[in-house]
Every structure is written in C-alpha cells, then in structure tokens.
Amino acid sequence: MGLAKDLREKRKLKTREVTVPEWGDKSGAFKLYCRPITCLDLSTLQKKHPDFLNNTTIAAMVDLIVMKALDDEGKRLFNGMEDRMDLMQEETTVISSIAEQMFAEIESQDDLAKN
C-alpha cells in the first residue's frame, strides 16, 4: 500500500457551516455547508480564473459557491450555468460573504511563501 492511498484513507474532510442571513426567513439565517477547499478545487478554479488566490473576482467566487455549496444532507445546492447566472444576479456583498466563509482558512500565495 502506498503513502498516497494511506493518506486518502486517513483524510476526513469536515463540513463547514456557512450562514447567509440575506437568504433566511422568519426562522433565521439560511445555512449551507461546504467541505474544505482542496488542491483539486484550487486547480480547477485557477484554470478558469488565473491568480485566483491573489485576485479573487466575483465570477470566481460564484464558481466557488457553485462547486462547493451543499445542503444539510451533503448534496450539491447548485448545478450548471443557470444556477451560476442566478447567483451572478445576487448582491456582491452576499456572494463575497459566502465565499469568504468558504475559504477563510486559505492563505494567499504571498502568505504561503512567508511560511
């Protein structure tokens, strides 16, 4: 058994809760969930949005949300271009707040270089 297979079996990606007050109702803020952003996620985003970590655009944030947003059962909330276009119509403060909560633990390339 190789090291990569051992690591894969040990990997447990915790689901993070993301609150969206603007999408809530009388019972409170809407909650969606996401797993941590992986190297594969970053690679996918950077193919479409070069310099994603240092120059994050609204379009890149929307793509991140489409990729990572889950319901409470772990199923994807958004799929395809239609959902992406709907999210692009949302207020920028809402999109940036969701994306910020999703990748709050990711550091910029400059920060990574300092370590």
Topology:
Blueprint: H1 3-10, E1 16-25, E2 28-34, H2 39-48, H3 58-68, H4 80-88, H5 92-102, H6 109-114
Antiparallel strand pairs: 1-2
Helix pairs in contact: 3-4, 3-5
How would you briefly describe this protein structure?
With 115 residues, the chain is of the alpha+beta class. The protein has helices at 3-10, 39-48, 58-68, 80-88, 92-102, 109-114, and strands at 16-25, 28-34. It has a single domain, classed as Phage tail assembly chaperone gp13-like (rbstp2171, 2-Layer Sandwich).
Can you offer a commentary on this structure?
- This protein is α+β, with helices and mostly antiparallel strands.
- It has one domain: rbstp2171 (2-Layer Sandwich), CATH 3.30.2220.
- Helix content is 48%, strand content 15%.
- The protein has six helices and two strands; from the N terminus they run αββααααα.
- It has helices at 3-10, 39-48, 58-68, 80-88, 92-102, 109-114, and strands at residues 16-25, 28-34.
- A two-stranded antiparallel sheet has the order 1-2.
- A hairpin with a 2-residue loop joins strand 1 (16-25) and strand 2.
- Helix 3 crosses helix 5 (92-102).
- The chain is globular, with a radius of gyration of 15 Å.
- Residues 111-115 have low confidence and may be disordered.
